[in-house]
Amino acid sequence: MERRGIIDVMRLSGPLLVIMLLVFNGCTSSNQEEASNVPQTLEQDLQTLAGARVFFGHQSVGKNILEGIAGLLRDHPGIDLRIADYTSEVGQSEGCLLHAAVGRNTEPLSKCVDFGRIIDEELAGRIDYALLKFCYIDINRDSDVAKVFGDYKRTMDDLIARHPEVTFIHTTMPLRHSPGGPSIWLRELLGRPNKSKLDNIKRNQFNQMLRSNYSDSGIVDIAASESTHANGKRESFKMDGGTYYSLIGDYTDDGGHLNDRGRTRVASAFVQEIADIIRAHP
To answer: Nearest 5°: phi and psi at 40?
Structure first.
């Protein structure tokens, strides 16, 4: 039945369909022209980060970013940026990037609770900056985005009030790749829902809530670096009149986690944005 439907669509569309398929192919090839997108200030940014005490709560994509930072450091062996588990000893003047896998994937509230516990019980007085990152898997098409963001905001606002000595940095939620091209377009034309796009719409909604609520605070925009090509063009799709962003296909091998190319791109942007915040809030 589905095969017959596709044939009917092709028969009805005729030359128009051929033209649209050529347009799709042209868009795909142009988006793949991805050059190195490492900031020129990277060495200075790494040095700034190396002089601060930062805690990063994360899960798997966060691990990808840390691997990317380690790769950047191999290219700058003169910079002594210590990346360590959050239980490591930290001196008053010793810079470090402490980290921990917080909570459980698919349970964003558990990440809020665990992040707050670590700050309150183990890191108070030992760090100057802290950031919590959700994973793409924490939100999907069925999620109550307002509730997820409400739990995050309540956690962060309480921590900000309890720990004025710490600058809390906010991070957008990573995205997944939303495949495009003729076959995807045909399935959508036949009325089959694109679950990848529906999931990413919810993630985009969370990210917009975060940007709107914390526009006056430091934000590390992971979703933006994941979806921005070297030429500045965004990896995007339209649905129901809205424009939404997704992970660039060249940055991932499984649709969600970052490959070597993605790790380098996102890690360099991550370092640059944190360094800018540190310089603004020394």
So the answer is: -65, -20
207-260 pLDDT per residue, tens: 999 999 999 999 999 999 999 999 999 999 999 999 999 999 999 999 999 999
pTM of the model: 0.85
How far is Cα 43 from Cα 51, in angstroms, rounded to an integer?
A: 13
Q: What is the residue whose two structure tokens read 């516990």?
A: 117
Looking at the chain, how many residues does it have? 282
Q: How many Cβ atoms are within 10 Å of 249's Cβ, its own excluded?
A: 18
Q: Report the C-alpha gap between 207 and 222 in whole angstroms.
A: 10
Partnered with residue 243 across adjacent β-strands are: 238
Among all chains, which residue has been given the structure tokens 């191999």?
74
| φ, ψ dihedrals at 132, nearest 5° | -115, 130
Residue 205, CB-side half-sphere exposure with 13 Å CA sphere: 19
Domains of the chain: 40-280 (3.40.50.1110)
Measured between alpha carbons, how far apart are the two ends of the chain, in Å?
A: 64
CA distance 85 to 53: 12
- Alpha-carbon distance of 177 to 235, in angstroms, equals 9
* 3-state secondary structure string across 138-180: HCCCCCCHHHHHHHHHHHHHHHHHHCCCCEEEEECCCCCCCCC
Q: Which ranges in the chain belong to alpha helices (H)?
A: 2-13, 15-31, 42-50, 60-74, 108-118, 145-162, 182-189, 195-213, 222-227, 260-280
